[in-house]
Amino acid sequence: MAICHYLKEIGRGKDGARSLDRAQAADLFGQLLDGSVSELELGAFCLAMRIKGETPEEMAGFLDATARRTDKVPTEGRTAVVLPSYNGARKLPVLTPLLALLLAREGLPVLVHGAATESRRVTSAAVLALLGVAADHSVQPLQAGQVRFVPTSLLCPGLQRLLEVRQVIGLRNSAHSLVKLMNPCDGDALVVGSYTHPEYLLSMGATFELTKQRAMLLRGTEGEPVADPRRLPQIDVFLRGQRRCVQEPQGGSLASLPELPAIDAASTAAWTAEVLAGRRTVPAPIARQVEHILQAVQSS
Q1: Any idea what DSSP says for residue 237?
Q2: Cα(83)–Cα(289) distance, integer angstroms
Q3: Between the CA atoms of 133, 135, 138 and 141, what dihedral angle is there, to the nearest 10 degrees?
Q4: 8-state DSSP, 141
Q5: DSSP string over 95-112
Q6: Helices and strands (DSSP H and E) totals, the chain
Q7: Of the chain's two ends, which shows fewer C-beta atoms within 10 Å, N or C?
Q8: What SS3 state is found at 130?
Q9: Around Cβ 98, how many Cβ atoms within 10 Å?
Q10: How far apart are the first and last CA of the chain?
Q11: pLDDT per position as a tens digit, 36-76
């Protein structure tokens, strides 16, 4: 078995498993991405890592392997904003497209990448398509003031295959965390990562520090990289391995709630278009997130 020696290390249970170093993790994940392991080995990896959990060193190695196999999006020397969109909407409308289009209006190149990992949720891809941003069929250069939606299958087919394992075993795997950390551009980019559970604030933050990526991290709306339109979350920015909290979480009771659309794609797209046209107000937390992103992109 090609990865048997790695499985023996990571597959000994939560307390007995041993972690891999960065180079070992890159080798292991590279074999998974290349499809050179059996389905039995792949399933064993997914379950073992699900039980053990990834260390920052292991996740950095997984990112190294993915970067070497990704068809990078050209940004022509500009610092892009990367919005990973994989969760979609279930209880609240998916407002990642609104964030992307607001940033593009400020002149930034914005890359949204994603795949439908939840069959019953409304995706950013569906909303963006209704707003005139169709999913790319090939990797194209990203221009200033432009939003592009690039499916994961275009960026890295092996990564798409790993995401699809969830449909078979019913559990998330390391790929679902990795896509929220990776930079699929050929140069500098601000990766806007989001988490749903508090433990990921620590693990994702530690990975951003280790890899020295330019990044932003917040508790997103249902796992999407956009601030909750009702209340500002904590927002941390990472630059050259240093973490800085740029936004404290909003406390206290809310004086009012923003008027939001229904969660279906058509309603969300129509509402987003009205916000962009100035006929509705940008929710204050999202407007504040835009400000923080602009500052993070300009930081050196």
Answers
A1: E
A2: 13
A3: 30
A4: P
A5: -HHHHHHHHHHTT--EEE
A6: 14, 7
A7: C
A8: helix
A9: 26
A10: 46
A11: 999 999 999 999 999 999 999 999 999 999 999 999 999 99
C-alpha closest to that of 224 among 81, 102, 83: 83
pLDDT of residue 255: 59
Q: What are phi and psi of 296, to 5 degrees?
A: -65, -35
Confidence of residue 1 (pLDDT cuts 50, 70, 90): low
Lowest mean pLDDT among 26-30, 166-170, 245-249: 166-170
| Residue 228, both tokens | 């909750």
How long, in residues, is the chain?
300
**Residue 192 has which token pair?**
């806007």
- Spatial neighbors of 244 by CB under 8 A, at least 6 apart, are 236, 237, 238
Contact 47, 168 (CB under 8 A): no
Looking at this protein, which amino acid is placed at residue 101?
Answer: L
Strand partners, 235: 218, 247
**Beta-bridge partners for 147:** 110
Distances in Å between the alpha carbon of 257 and those of 181, 260, 261, 284, 291?
31, 9, 12, 11, 21
Which residues are registered as beta bridge partners of 215?
191, 238
pTM for this one?
Answer: 0.95
156, 124 contact by CB (below 8 A): no
18 exposure class (CB count in 10 Å sphere: 0-12, 13-18, 19+): exposed
Using DSSP's 3-state secondary structure scheme, residue 180 falls into: coil
Q: Rounded to whole angstroms, how far apart are CA atoms 67 and 83?
A: 17
pLDDT at 197 (0 to 100): 85
**Mean of per-residue pLDDT scores for the chain:** 94
pLDDT value for 15: 81
Provide the pairing of β-strand 235-239 with 147-151.
unpaired
Task: Strand 80-84: give its sheet, edge to edge.
Answer: 147-151, 110-114, 80-84, 189-195, 215-219, 235-239, 242-247
- Is 159:175 a contact under the CB 8 Å cutoff? yes
DSSP 183: -
Residue with the two structure tokens 């597959």: 11
